[in-house]
Amino acid sequence: MQPTRDIDRRADRSWADNAVRLIEADARRSADTHLLRVELPEWSRWRDGDAEVGIDLYLKDESTHPTGSLKHRLARSLFLYAICNGWITEGTPVIEASSGSTAVSEAYFAKLIGVPFIAVMTAGTSPAKTALIEREGGQCHFVQRAGEVYAEALRLEAERGGHFIDQFTMAERATDWRGNNNIAESIFAQMADEDHPIPTWIVVGAGTGGTSATLGRYLRYRRHPTWLCVVDPENSVFLPAFESGDGALTSDAGSRIEGIGRPRVEPSFVSQVIDRMIGVPDEASIATARCVTNRLGRRVGGSTGTNMWGAFSLVAEMVAQRRTGSVVTLLCDPGDRYSTTYFDDSWLAAQGFDLGPATAVLDEFLATGRWSG
User: Which of 181, 341, 355, 368 pairs with 292 at a CA distance of 20 to 30 A?
Assistant: First the structure.
């Protein structure tokens, strides 16, 4: 008789148990992010018989997370997923390919559980973001072109015996889209007592595609009659891929709106759960970020401008149709991170940006409710 083979790979799970405890404790210390009601002009309300009806617009303020952006949710999910899969263990260097905000949040969680963190990013990433990564104890590793970040992250993973946490692949699977206080469940819970608790539209951008995948799946799972619109900046392939069905499309240029838009169709981009996509010119994203900044009294980032351009256009469409309801979008991160770019007139001039035409569209919309963008 052959001897019994007994391969015992049990390991001490105390480090992983403590790492999960630390991350979960951090989540419990953080209250949910605010849902802000954006005041619209008088044209957003009208009479229907004896009742006053209209349209409401909301911003879910993800800038209030401890690391200041929507990516805090993603980073928490990615770390829990990797730890529970046994990919991150004590001392494992964590490597990420990131345009900035995800890396800031991941550096935070790496420091929380005591592992090294390296962010691979393009040299053009805003200095404010790299400073935030370094403040959280992370290391910034630069490449020249956006398309190089993946190969360089894999090279560093092999060289340092680390784990490439790979937000662009793992984002759609690391988050529990059915609930568990994800962003979709949070939005609907906060909308419960509003005039139009089930939004007509939810508007988001796509970086990894994880947020749009979570929202789209949740809407179907809960059978909500809400449409999901994804807004996409210039030089991103998500919109062309959505239009053509070609998931192999690539672009040589990178998005100039940090945090959204990609030069390739990322694995986490689930186009089948998206109902509509709107392409947003970069000048429109920046002009809208400045417009929203003035209305809120605090700076918002470029991706929030992209979101709000799409949301404004949908509000105008609903006004033209005399369709009541609500529109919800995201305030992704604070504009202070972009003081040397989107809010710097000399930087805009150097980029050749002219915000005049987009600003005129916004002015007309805010004055009349009509959209000419």
Answer: 181
